[in-house]
Amino acid sequence: MDFNRREFLALTGSAVAVRFDAGATTPDLDRAIAVLHLEDQGHLLESVKGYQRALGALGIPAVAASESSVVMAAYRGATVIIEAGGTAHDALTALGVNAEQPRNLWRRGFSPAIPNVGSAIPYIDYSWPIAVKVRDFSRVVPLSGPGWDHIAEVDGVCVGLTRRIGRGRLVVLGSPLGPVLLGEDREAHEWLAALLAKERT
Amino acid sequence: MQKSIGDNMIPKGWGLERGLELIRKAGFDGVELWLGGSAWLQVGTSDADVIDLARRVKDAGLAVSNVSNTLDWDHPISSRDPAIRQLAFTHIERQIEVAHLVGTDAILVVAGLVTDEVPYNEVYARTVEGVKTLAVKAGAAGVRIGCENCCAEQRFLMSPREFATFLDDVGSPHVGIHLDVGNIHETGFAEQWIEIHGPRITRIHLKDVLKHRGRCGNESVYTNLFLGDNNWPAIRAAMQKVRYDGWLIAEMESRYRHAVDQQFYDTAAAIDRLVTGRL
Questions:
Q1: What would the mean pLDDT of B66-94 be, rounded to a whole number?
Q2: By CB distance 3.0 to 4.6 Å, which of A78, A154, B66, B235 could disulfide with A73?
Q3: Alpha-carbon distance B212 to B22, whole Å?
Q4: Residue A199 to residues A5, A29, A65, A124, A149: CA-CA distances in angstroms?
Q5: Pick the residue with more confidence: A2 or B63?
């Protein structure tokens, strides 16, 4: 990765981190997961609550953590999920991720294949770590970036990326999963559980 | 997914063999048997005659998708009258037996009926207990009880979360929801019911609904596929989301005034288009 840790730290000032299963001073975070939600329009709290509830149901306690522990978490073995919002793209740029302006899935014009009333729900199609359809959360941030693997799309537009970093993994989501977890979307819970199972074995 | 249609749709006077032949020729894979709804399947029909019925269905090149009943409305398990409740248990237990005999793993029941005389809370408690009891027999027979969402007609379990709570309270793997996408009317969206219930869906009933008619008059709100207000692309996508791959069972009203058999062909073709996404 060609981003500077200090720069990334500075750019994630509004992020909220949730850390699990590891003490702040533990150097090995193989069993940790961190969530950064880069959104400032009211979805942050719902997202964090969604992850907390979902992970709690999996028996993984959630505790607040410092931003620095999250930033280093991936290097030290954690899985870090970054939910891209519409106003914090600099942080993603630092990661080598290009995030376009959010697109409203429920307004005509996103794509001819995603029309309005009387059409299919624009589910997010995840292809990794398992193939599932997850309910959209009204808008998506199209994502791209060299060296990143595509893991989710809606109507052919990539809205999810992942790559290894250090001993851990970064996952960038252009469609917030936390609020959908809070909404009890079954397949969203399956996806998160599969991610944890894959990264924790 | 496989297509089915009820034997109660067979035109009057056609008889079983001719009706089954029509169902097969129209392109269906199976038939839904309605206990109490035809001459060939009543509560008193013997095991031997049920087995013979299964043979006639098989000989016609069809399978039995599920066994439903027409009796719950007159004999609900939520009745205050113990004698009525016993009648309900009798016909539902017979449904389970019939399902086992004809080789299908699902039955449909309309569980619970709220009236001006029998209030909601009373119906809820009695229905949960009744279905719990029936679930034991269903499990032993390898059959799942699908409680249908008749929503407005039952005046019961009218939201998907409420229905989920009901299933939670029953708490049996042998009980789920027989989801009718035409029964949701103006109170919600069928695709959201599908998302919420997912693996607890035992079977899906297909029909369309004219939401603007509401439930205020005598005019039916139901119509044939694609003529109403259901969002079929969304319903299809939701079935894919929850990986529903089971039977799709047409439950229509017989609306054709002429060429009554044409409804079978039209319905089978509509289901094909739903399944293949040509919408």
A1: 97
A2: A78
A3: 33
A4: 23, 11, 20, 22, 16
A5: B63
Phi and psi angles of residue B74, each rounded to the nearest 5 degrees, phi first:
-90, -30
pLDDT, position A114: 43
**CATH tag for B2-276 (out of 1.10.10.10, 3.20.20.150, 3.30.450.20, 2.40.50.140):** 3.20.20.150
Q: Give per-residue pLDDT as tens, B124-180.
A: 999 999 999 999 999 999 999 999 999 888 999 999 999 999 999 999 999 999 999
Interchain contact, A123 vs B237, CB within 8 Å? yes
* Closest chain B CA to residue A132: B241
Residue of B163, B195, B242, B274 for testing the chain A interface, max A β-carbons within 10 Å: B195
What distance in Å separates the CA atoms of residue B23 and residue B31, rounded to the nearest whole number? Answer: 8
The whole-angstrom separation of Cα A71 and Cα B163 is 43
Mean pLDDT lowest among A18-22, A166-170, B63-67, B238-242? A18-22
Which residue is it, tokens 């620095």? A68
Angle in degrees, 0-180, between the axes of helices A44-57 and A186-199, rounded to the nearest 10: 70
Which uninterrupted H or E stretch holds B106? Answer: strand B106-109
The CA distances from residue B241 to A103, B3, B219, in Å, are: 22, 19, 34
The domain of A87 spans 5-199
Of B196, B198, B234, the CB nearest to A121: B234
pTM of the model: 0.88
Band (pLDDT 50/70/90 cuts) for residue B53 is very high
B237:A187 CB<8 A: no
B-chain residues within 8 Å CB-CB of A117? 231
How many structural domains is chain A composed of?
A: 1
CB-CB neighbours of B239 under 10 Å: 24
The CATH number given to whatever domain includes residue A41 is 3.40.50
Section B248-254 average pLDDT: 95
Between CA B166 and CA B184 the distance in angstroms is 17
Q: Cβ–Cβ of A118/B238 closer than 8 Å?
A: no
User: What is the rounded radius of gyration, in angstroms, for the C-alpha atoms of chain B?
Assistant: 18
Which secondary-structure segment (H or E) carries B234?
helix B232-241
